[in-house]
Write a structure and sequence with these properties.
It contains 9 helices and 11 strands. The chain is α+β, with helices and mostly antiparallel strands. The C terminus is likely disordered.
Protein backbone atom coordinates (compact mmCIF):
# COMPACT_ATOMS: atom_id res chain seq x y z
CA UNK A 1 0.00 0.00 0.00
CA UNK A 2 2.84 2.41 0.75
CA UNK A 3 4.03 2.05 -2.84
CA UNK A 4 0.57 2.92 -4.14
CA UNK A 5 0.51 6.02 -1.94
CA UNK A 6 4.01 7.02 -3.09
CA UNK A 7 2.95 6.55 -6.73
CA UNK A 8 -0.13 8.71 -6.24
CA UNK A 9 1.89 11.50 -4.62
CA UNK A 10 4.55 11.22 -7.33
CA UNK A 11 1.85 11.67 -9.98
CA UNK A 12 0.61 14.80 -8.18
CA UNK A 13 4.16 16.16 -8.21
CA UNK A 14 4.66 15.42 -11.92
CA UNK A 15 1.45 17.16 -13.05
CA UNK A 16 2.14 20.18 -10.84
CA UNK A 17 -0.63 19.60 -8.35
CA UNK A 18 2.18 19.60 -5.80
CA UNK A 19 4.61 22.13 -7.34
CA UNK A 20 8.31 22.55 -6.42
CA UNK A 21 8.63 24.01 -2.94
CA UNK A 22 5.12 22.96 -1.89
CA UNK A 23 4.69 21.30 1.48
CA UNK A 24 3.06 17.89 1.48
CA UNK A 25 0.01 17.38 3.70
CA UNK A 26 0.91 16.48 7.26
CA UNK A 27 1.28 12.88 8.31
CA UNK A 28 -2.11 13.00 10.04
CA UNK A 29 -3.75 14.43 6.91
CA UNK A 30 -2.16 11.76 4.72
CA UNK A 31 -3.30 9.01 7.08
CA UNK A 32 -6.87 10.30 6.84
CA UNK A 33 -6.71 10.72 3.05
CA UNK A 34 -5.39 7.22 2.37
CA UNK A 35 -6.88 5.49 5.43
CA UNK A 36 -3.39 4.21 6.23
CA UNK A 37 -1.25 3.67 9.28
CA UNK A 38 1.55 5.98 10.38
CA UNK A 39 4.19 3.43 9.33
CA UNK A 40 2.64 3.08 5.85
CA UNK A 41 2.69 6.85 5.31
CA UNK A 42 6.27 7.10 6.53
CA UNK A 43 7.34 4.30 4.19
CA UNK A 44 5.68 6.11 1.28
CA UNK A 45 7.55 9.32 2.14
CA UNK A 46 10.81 7.33 2.28
CA UNK A 47 10.19 6.11 -1.27
CA UNK A 48 9.69 9.66 -2.52
CA UNK A 49 12.77 10.83 -0.62
CA UNK A 50 14.88 8.06 -2.15
CA UNK A 51 13.65 9.10 -5.59
CA UNK A 52 14.79 12.66 -4.87
CA UNK A 53 11.25 14.06 -5.19
CA UNK A 54 10.77 15.33 -1.63
CA UNK A 55 12.84 16.29 1.37
CA UNK A 56 11.88 16.40 5.04
CA UNK A 57 12.98 19.46 6.96
CA UNK A 58 13.09 18.91 10.73
CA UNK A 59 10.38 20.88 12.46
CA UNK A 60 8.89 22.16 9.19
CA UNK A 61 7.49 19.21 7.25
CA UNK A 62 8.06 17.46 3.94
CA UNK A 63 8.50 19.56 0.80
CA UNK A 64 8.62 18.93 -2.93
CA UNK A 65 12.21 19.30 -4.14
CA UNK A 66 12.96 22.00 -6.70
CA UNK A 67 13.53 20.53 -10.15
CA UNK A 68 16.96 21.39 -11.49
CA UNK A 69 18.13 20.90 -15.05
CA UNK A 70 21.65 19.47 -14.57
CA UNK A 71 24.69 20.93 -16.29
CA UNK A 72 26.92 18.37 -17.99
CA UNK A 73 30.65 19.06 -17.66
CA UNK A 74 32.80 17.19 -20.17
CA UNK A 75 36.01 16.10 -18.47
CA UNK A 76 37.61 15.06 -21.76
CA UNK A 77 38.57 18.19 -23.66
CA UNK A 78 41.10 19.38 -26.21
CA UNK A 79 44.51 19.39 -24.53
CA UNK A 80 45.13 23.08 -25.26
CA UNK A 81 41.77 24.21 -23.87
CA UNK A 82 41.37 26.00 -20.56
CA UNK A 83 41.00 23.14 -18.13
CA UNK A 84 41.11 25.63 -15.25
CA UNK A 85 37.62 26.88 -16.13
CA UNK A 86 38.53 30.53 -15.51
CA UNK A 87 37.79 33.42 -17.82
CA UNK A 88 35.93 33.46 -21.12
CA UNK A 89 36.43 29.71 -21.86
CA UNK A 90 34.14 28.87 -18.92
CA UNK A 91 31.57 31.46 -20.04
CA UNK A 92 31.64 30.13 -23.61
CA UNK A 93 31.19 26.54 -22.47
CA UNK A 94 28.06 27.37 -20.48
CA UNK A 95 26.58 29.67 -23.14
CA UNK A 96 27.12 26.94 -25.77
CA UNK A 97 24.70 24.79 -23.79
CA UNK A 98 22.11 27.55 -23.75
CA UNK A 99 22.54 28.39 -20.09
CA UNK A 100 23.29 31.68 -18.32
CA UNK A 101 26.75 31.77 -16.63
CA UNK A 102 28.11 34.12 -13.99
CA UNK A 103 31.23 34.05 -11.87
CA UNK A 104 32.21 36.02 -8.79
CA UNK A 105 35.23 38.28 -8.61
CA UNK A 106 38.45 36.35 -8.16
CA UNK A 107 39.77 36.12 -4.61
CA UNK A 108 43.57 35.81 -4.57
CA UNK A 109 45.68 34.59 -1.66
CA UNK A 110 49.31 33.65 -1.12
CA UNK A 111 49.40 30.73 1.29
CA UNK A 112 51.49 27.84 2.47
CA UNK A 113 50.61 24.45 1.05
CA UNK A 114 49.11 21.59 3.01
CA UNK A 115 50.39 18.04 2.57
CA UNK A 116 47.96 17.15 -0.23
CA UNK A 117 48.67 20.26 -2.32
CA UNK A 118 52.39 19.73 -1.77
CA UNK A 119 52.12 16.13 -2.98
CA UNK A 120 50.07 16.95 -6.07
CA UNK A 121 52.28 19.88 -7.12
CA UNK A 122 55.51 18.19 -5.92
CA UNK A 123 56.33 21.00 -3.49
CA UNK A 124 57.70 21.08 0.03
CA UNK A 125 55.23 21.68 2.86
CA UNK A 126 56.91 25.00 3.71
CA UNK A 127 56.49 26.29 0.14
CA UNK A 128 53.90 28.91 -0.81
CA UNK A 129 51.42 28.97 -3.68
CA UNK A 130 49.06 31.51 -5.21
CA UNK A 131 45.40 30.48 -4.93
CA UNK A 132 42.65 31.92 -7.13
CA UNK A 133 39.12 31.26 -5.89
CA UNK A 134 35.79 31.83 -7.63
CA UNK A 135 32.14 31.12 -6.99
CA UNK A 136 30.28 30.14 -10.14
CA UNK A 137 26.60 30.35 -11.00
CA UNK A 138 24.42 28.99 -13.78
CA UNK A 139 20.98 30.51 -14.38
CA UNK A 140 21.61 32.59 -11.21
CA UNK A 141 21.83 29.46 -9.08
CA UNK A 142 24.99 28.58 -7.12
CA UNK A 143 26.59 25.82 -9.18
CA UNK A 144 30.23 25.25 -8.25
CA UNK A 145 33.23 26.44 -6.28
CA UNK A 146 36.68 26.52 -7.83
CA UNK A 147 40.14 27.18 -6.43
CA UNK A 148 43.30 26.95 -8.52
CA UNK A 149 46.76 26.75 -6.94
CA UNK A 150 49.91 27.88 -8.78
CA UNK A 151 53.52 27.31 -7.62
CA UNK A 152 55.40 30.52 -6.85
CA UNK A 153 58.03 29.78 -9.50
CA UNK A 154 55.38 30.53 -12.15
CA UNK A 155 54.92 34.05 -10.80
CA UNK A 156 58.67 34.53 -10.40
CA UNK A 157 59.15 33.67 -14.07
CA UNK A 158 56.80 36.46 -15.13
CA UNK A 159 53.15 35.39 -14.78
CA UNK A 160 52.41 38.33 -12.50
CA UNK A 161 48.72 38.60 -13.42
CA UNK A 162 48.02 35.52 -11.33
CA UNK A 163 48.47 37.55 -8.14
CA UNK A 164 46.05 40.24 -9.26
CA UNK A 165 42.48 39.96 -8.00
CA UNK A 166 40.95 40.22 -11.45
CA UNK A 167 39.61 37.78 -13.98
CA UNK A 168 41.97 36.65 -16.74
CA UNK A 169 39.55 36.84 -19.65
CA UNK A 170 41.65 34.84 -22.09
CA UNK A 171 41.86 31.98 -19.62
CA UNK A 172 44.86 31.05 -17.50
CA UNK A 173 46.00 28.27 -19.84
CA UNK A 174 46.49 30.67 -22.74
CA UNK A 175 47.93 33.32 -20.41
CA UNK A 176 50.64 30.99 -19.03
CA UNK A 177 51.60 29.98 -22.55
CA UNK A 178 51.99 33.56 -23.78
CA UNK A 179 53.48 34.98 -20.57
CA UNK A 180 56.14 32.40 -19.69
CA UNK A 181 55.92 29.72 -22.39
CA UNK A 182 54.37 27.15 -20.04
CA UNK A 183 52.15 25.29 -22.51
CA UNK A 184 49.64 22.92 -20.99
CA UNK A 185 50.24 19.39 -22.31
CA UNK A 186 47.69 17.49 -20.28
CA UNK A 187 46.15 16.91 -16.90
CA UNK A 188 45.15 14.24 -14.43
CA UNK A 189 41.70 14.27 -12.80
CA UNK A 190 40.62 12.61 -9.57
CA UNK A 191 37.00 12.66 -8.38
CA UNK A 192 35.77 12.21 -4.83
CA UNK A 193 32.20 12.10 -3.54
CA UNK A 194 31.82 13.42 0.00
CA UNK A 195 29.48 15.30 2.32
CA UNK A 196 29.56 19.11 2.02
CA UNK A 197 31.11 21.17 4.78
CA UNK A 198 29.05 23.91 6.42
CA UNK A 199 30.31 26.68 4.10
CA UNK A 200 29.58 24.61 0.98
CA UNK A 201 26.11 23.64 2.22
CA UNK A 202 25.34 27.29 2.93
CA UNK A 203 26.55 28.53 -0.46
CA UNK A 204 24.75 25.85 -2.48
CA UNK A 205 21.63 25.97 -0.32
CA UNK A 206 21.86 22.27 0.51
CA UNK A 207 19.88 20.56 3.28
CA UNK A 208 21.85 20.57 6.53
CA UNK A 209 21.07 16.90 7.18
CA UNK A 210 23.23 15.66 4.32
CA UNK A 211 20.74 14.44 1.69
CA UNK A 212 22.83 15.95 -1.13
CA UNK A 213 26.53 15.12 -1.41
CA UNK A 214 29.16 17.07 -3.35
CA UNK A 215 31.61 15.92 -5.99
CA UNK A 216 35.14 17.24 -5.62
CA UNK A 217 37.42 17.15 -8.66
CA UNK A 218 41.15 17.74 -8.39
CA UNK A 219 42.86 18.51 -11.69
CA UNK A 220 46.66 18.55 -11.82
CA UNK A 221 47.94 20.17 -15.03
CA UNK A 222 51.34 19.52 -16.65
CA UNK A 223 53.33 21.52 -19.20
CA UNK A 224 55.43 20.20 -22.09
CA UNK A 225 58.42 19.76 -19.77
CA UNK A 226 56.40 17.59 -17.39
CA UNK A 227 56.24 20.29 -14.72
CA UNK A 228 53.13 20.56 -12.56
CA UNK A 229 51.86 24.04 -13.26
CA UNK A 230 48.42 24.09 -11.62
CA UNK A 231 46.13 22.25 -9.24
CA UNK A 232 42.45 23.12 -9.64
CA UNK A 233 40.03 21.95 -6.96
CA UNK A 234 36.36 22.24 -7.91
CA UNK A 235 33.33 21.39 -5.78
CA UNK A 236 29.98 20.56 -7.41
CA UNK A 237 26.71 19.70 -5.63
CA UNK A 238 25.48 16.35 -6.94
CA UNK A 239 21.87 17.50 -7.39
CA UNK A 240 22.69 19.84 -10.31
CA UNK A 241 25.80 18.49 -12.00
CA UNK A 242 26.69 15.59 -14.25
CA UNK A 243 30.00 14.62 -15.84
CA UNK A 244 30.76 13.09 -19.23
CA UNK A 245 33.85 11.31 -20.53
CA UNK A 246 34.06 10.87 -24.30
CA UNK A 247 36.30 8.15 -25.72
CA UNK A 248 37.03 7.61 -29.41
CA UNK A 249 35.13 9.00 -32.37
CA UNK A 250 31.54 9.87 -31.49
CA UNK A 251 28.98 12.06 -33.32
CA UNK A 252 29.01 15.72 -32.32
CA UNK A 253 25.36 15.60 -31.26
CA UNK A 254 26.10 12.69 -28.93
CA UNK A 255 28.69 14.55 -26.86
CA UNK A 256 25.98 16.17 -24.72
CA UNK A 257 22.52 14.74 -25.46
CA UNK A 258 20.94 16.79 -22.68
CA UNK A 259 21.96 20.14 -24.14
CA UNK A 260 20.78 19.28 -27.65
CA UNK A 261 17.46 17.77 -26.63
CA UNK A 262 14.45 19.76 -27.85
CA UNK A 263 12.47 21.58 -25.20
CA UNK A 264 15.25 21.46 -22.62
CA UNK A 265 14.65 23.52 -19.52
CA UNK A 266 16.96 26.50 -19.21
CA UNK A 267 16.24 27.44 -15.64
CA UNK A 268 16.96 25.92 -12.27
Amino acid sequence: MYRQIAEDLRAQIEVGQLPPGARLPTEIELRETYDASRHTIRDAIKVLTTQGLVETRPGQGTFVVERISPFVTTLTQVVGSDGSGEGSPYIQEVVAKRRLPRASDVRVEIRRVDHRIARELQLNVEDTVVSRHQRRYIDEKAWSLQTSFYPMWIIEQGAARLIQASNIEQGTVDYLKTAIGAEQAGWRDTLTVRMPDSDEARFFGLPDYGRVSVIETRRTAFDRQGRRIRLTVSVYPADRNEFAVNVGDIPADAEDPASSAPGQETGG
